[in-house]
Structure formats: structure tokens, C-alpha cells
Amino acid sequence: MKLQDVCEITCVDSEKVERVKNKLRGQETANVAKIYKALADDTRLKIAYALLEEELCVCDVANIVGATTATASHHLRLLKNTGLAKFRKEGKLVYYSLDDDHVKKLILIAFEHQGEMSQRGSRTIG
Q1: Helix residue ranges, H only, the chain
Q2: How far are the Cα atoms of 30, 52, 98 from residue 24, in angstroms, in the given order?
Q3: pTM given for the model
Q4: Strand partners, 90
């Protein structure tokens, strides 16, 4: 017998629903979604992971992910615009790094979770 993943009847716990809705009202979910959307691209996630290790110039990032400097620059700019990365200019070079420890933790936790899922033998999403 196959288990269904949806309720078979409608039963709403009004107090619980209202409590969670009140908490959600104070959150900026659209802005948080932009962060996850930025990291949902495979190339940008690789770039973010690379920036966990070191501050890198655009040319280094392009080489690491196998992209042109224009493509790497585009992805880095998007990461910067979503508040995930920051940059500094040194002469003619531009160096990128992750913005802060929260961003680093977010990326590390995602990879740690994926590692646990792989060890459990679960199939990956996508």
C-alpha cells in the first residue's frame, strides 16, 4: 500500500495557524527567497563555495568554474547585489569574498546536509 503525502480530510488547528501566520508577517520572505534564488544556480553555488576557501579575483573564479571572465563577473555581481559577496579593487584586479559568517554558514550547512542525504542513500533533488 502506497502512503499518501497529503491529508485525507481537512482539519485546521486555528491557534497553530494564527501563531505561525503572525510570526511570518514580520519576516521578509521575498528578500530571503532572493538569497536562495541566487544560490540555486549551480555555477553561482560553485563560486560561493570557492569563496569559502579564499578571497579570489574574477580571473581565478572564472578558471575555477570553467567560465569566461565575463560570465564569472556576471555571477559575482549577482552574488554581490544579493548581499552574499563583497569585493575590493586592488590596482587593476577585483577580488571577491563572501560577505560575512552568516553567508559562510548558510553554504556550509547546505553542503553538510547534502552530504548527510547522500550517506542515507536518498536521491538528490533536481
Answers
A1: 14-25, 29-39, 42-53, 58-65, 69-81, 101-120
A2: 11, 30, 28
A3: 0.81
A4: 93
